[in-house]
Design brief:
The chain is mainly α. It has helices at 21-32, 42-63. The protein has two domains: 1-33, no CATH class; 38-64. It starts with 20 loop residues before the first helix and ends with a helix.
């Protein structure tokens, strides 16, 4: 989940704006949790999966 859609329970503002200390702390915590694939959209992940399947099929076809 991205923090730009979260609403703070403390100040009722979007967390991405960081209006209160709770918002700023949660925004920092969520930014630190970004992993390798965290910034990719679902369509990008689907495209990568399709490319991987195509590459495996091509390799299988060449060896047979």
């Amino acid at each position: 989940m991205t923090y730009d859609r979260l609403v703070c329970a403390n100040c009722a503002a979007p967390v991405s704006e960081g209006r209160c200390p709770v918002c700023r702390a949660n925004r920092e915590r969520m930014q630190q949790q970004n992993g390798f694939l965290a910034g990719l959209t679902p369509m990008t992940l689907v495209a990568l999966a399709v490319l991987l399947v195509a590459a495996v099929a091509l390799l299988a076809h060449q060896t047979a």
